[in-house]
Design brief:
The protein has 272 residues and is an all-alpha fold. It has helices at residues 12-46, 55-82, 89-94, 105-108, 114-136, 141-169, 173-186, 198-205, 212-229, 253-260, 262-266. The N and C termini lie far apart (61 Å). One of its GO terms (biological process) is phenylacetate catabolic process.
């Protein structure tokens, strides 16, 4: 028998199980963050339906939103599996309060005019393609498979944003003014996409995520090239909006979530 007061070291199997649980918890939070990004941006783009400048843009933004909802479903379902709760993607989308969402603030910004939406899409899609391509080369097999699929779809979203950025930037005096204003409005919220914390540090060390500083450098070069083609310059904001990853959101977020969850709240447990 062990001596009184002596603490036994965990068995190797116990240590391995603890390590696996910690890794699952990290992946659960990562997929929650990324799933919330896709879900909330998709919801924002849905608000353009019947309001876009042209029928073609109505269809284009609707299709981009559908792709994002598909990404959100895959990521949120994985998060519910990994965190041990067994929650489905619907549970996570419609059963949480606004403080439980972990999306970056950029994705929840109001649509504004069309140029604001284009600026938001430019910033997010260039980030998302780079991230998804990096996930495809990462050590987590399921995230790698997701990244490989999603990057192909998001590349089309990026092309759409690039074309409109150039078209508005080189268009009329009014379209150029609006595009510049849209960039100025959106850019303070871009830094949060690349914020590092204990979670990202662990995931980078595990080979799941790329170094975010390198990702940001690639993103800056990518968006700068598009803005140069458009005759525009990269904004230099004097402040940065943060807090979304910790559940602290903008004033516009509450009404967005209420709208998204309205049917579930009115008919809890309903099925169709």
């Amino acid at each position: 028998m062990p001596e009184t007061g002596r603490t036994l070291a965990p068995a190797p199997a116990d240590r391995a199980a603890d390590t696996d649980r910690a890794a699952d918890a990290d992946l659960a939070l990562l997929t929650l963050r990324l799933g919330d990004d896709a879900l909330i941006l998709g919801q924002r783009l849905c608000q353009w339906i019947t309001r876009a400048p042209t029928i073609e843009e109505d269809l284009a933004l609707s299709n981009i939103a559908l792709d994002l909802v598909g990404h959100a479903r895959a990521l949120l379902a994985r998060s519910g599996q990994l965190d041990g709760t067994g929650r489905s993607e619907d549970d996570l989308a419609f059963g949480r309060t606004d403080r439980a969402f972990r999306n970056a603030l950029l994705t929840e910004l109001p649509n504004g005019d069309f140029a604001v939406t284009v600026a938001r899409q430019l910033a997010f899609t260039h980030y998302a393609v780079l991230l998804q391509q990096a996930l495809a080369d990462g050590t987590d097999r399921e995230l790698a498979a997701f990244g490989a699929r999603a990057a192909k779809e998001t590349a089309f979203h990026r092309r759409h944003a690039d074309l409109w950025t150039v078209r508005l930037g080189l268009g009329t005096e009014e379209s150029t003014r609006r595009m510049r204003a849209g960039l100025e409005q959106v850019w303070p919220y871009t830094a949060e996409l690349f914020d590092e914390d204990d979670l990202t540090d662990r995931l980078v060390a595990a080979g799941v995520l790329p170094p975010l500083a390198a990702l940001r450098t690639a993103w800056q070069a990518s968006v700068a090239a598009v803005l140069d083609r458009a005759g525009l310059t990269v904004p230099a904001p004097t402040w940065q909006g943060r807090g979304g990853r910790q559940g602290l959101h903008t004033e516009a977020f509450g009404p967005l979530i209420a709208e998204m969850q309205s049917v579930r709240r009115q008919f809890p447990g309903g099925t169709w």
